[in-house]
Design goal:
By secondary structure, the chain is an alpha+beta fold. The protein has a single domain (3-96), classed as Dna Ligase, domain 1 (2-Layer Sandwich), CATH 3.30.1490.190. Helices cover 40% and strands 25% of the residues. It has helices at 3-15, 56-69, 85-96, and strands spanning 19-22, 27-30, 39-44, 50-53, 77-82. The protein has a three-stranded mixed beta sheet with strand order 4-3-5, with no helix packed on it. Strands 1-2 form a two-stranded antiparallel sheet. A hairpin with a 5-residue loop joins strand 3 and strand 4 (50-53). Bound molecules: zinc ion (ZN). Residues 44, 46-47, 49, 83-84, 86-87 line the site of zinc ion (ZN). Residues 44, 46-47, 49, 83-84, 86-87 line the site of zinc ion.
Length: 97
């Protein structure tokens, strides 16, 4: 399949809410059922795991802050880089030995 065809399919899936784009990694993850929430991702630097969560309160806070600034956001994404639990525990074990 041609790259531009794959991109169009991913764009369609994104519009349908089936996948979500991880902006900083130029990657996509499968969306959970009925997941209309803001895009908030935890990205592991160790294993590359991506965890997406719903955080409607954060989306409301960002919208409120944008409104206070007179800013009109068209898309909100929050990405948090760090270590997942597995990688953090693995590193902790290595440090103890
Ligand atoms: Zn990890």
């Amino acid at each position: 399949m041609a790259a531009n065809s794959i991109y169009r399919v991913l764009l369609l899936f994104t519009e349908l809410g089936l996948v979500r784009r991880v902006e900083s990694r130029q990657a996509y993850v499968v969306a959970r059922d009925g997941d209309p929430g803001s895009d908030m991702f935890f990205l592991c630097d160790g294993c590359g795991a991506v965890t997406a969560i719903d955080q409607p309160q954060l989306a409301a806070l960002l919208t409120s802050q944008a409104s206070a600034l007179g800013f009109r956001p068209h898309h909100q994404v929050v990405e948090v880089a760090g270590q997942c639990r597995t990688c953090a525990e693995s590193q902790s074990i290595k440090e103890q030995t």
